[in-house]
Design a protein that fits this description.
alpha+beta
Length: 63
């Protein structure tokens, strides 16, 4: 809700009722990935479609 159900990577709307493993479902994107020293805090996470988040992987920016 904090991110208004908008994907931080593609800027498209995220369907709140979609559930995993639907590629359009909401997932937690770590701005600085955990594998690169990022934290699991509200300041470092944003809403993203599952497909966008998986595509981003552990990069610092969207593809």
């Amino acid at each position: 809700m904090r991110d208004a159900w908008t994907c931080s990577l593609c800027k498209g709307p995220v369907e709140a009722s979609a559930t995993w493993p639907d590629p359009e479902s909401a997932s937690v994107d770590h701005v600085v990935p955990l594998s690169r020293g990022g934290s699991h805090t509200m300041a470092n996470v944003m809403t993203a479609h599952l497909r966008c988040n998986l595509s981003k992987g552990n990069r610092m920016e969207a593809a």
